[in-house]
Write a structure and sequence with these properties.
The protein is an alpha+beta fold. The chain contains 5 helices and 7 strands, in the order βαααβββαβαββ.
Length: 153
Amino acid sequence: MIHSRLAAPEDCRAVFELSNDPVVRAVSFSSKPIPYESHIKWFEARLADPDCLFVLFYDSGQLAGQVRFAREKGGDQADISISIAETHRGKGIALEVMRKALEYPRQKWRVARIKALVKLDNEASNRYFEKAGYVFSNRSAHDGIDCNVYFYE
């Protein structure tokens, strides 16, 4: 059974490994591998940021996935980022992970909507967000990369 909890300092290595998974890097807006020293600084900053919720999903002690919410400073909207570990891809857990993850920003921040940016060529994630109840809004560019914008309200 998959359980969720907020990220803690001891999760740094597991999140680093998931973040550097070749499939995760390929669909990310920055596809370059992440050096561990850079990751440590980034991870610590996310944990300290009151406008960031970093939710991890574990299955039998193994990281199955992560969902990160970044709220606009004090606002009522948060951006979402999600990654599923290679060991858990294709097993149908992504919708369960999303459903459980959405409880965190709703309870802590009472956000009105969640925004997802998905690269145009990431067909799996585009289908996934639509299945999860996100509504396509428009096409946009993020860091010079064309993407679809979805909202969940």
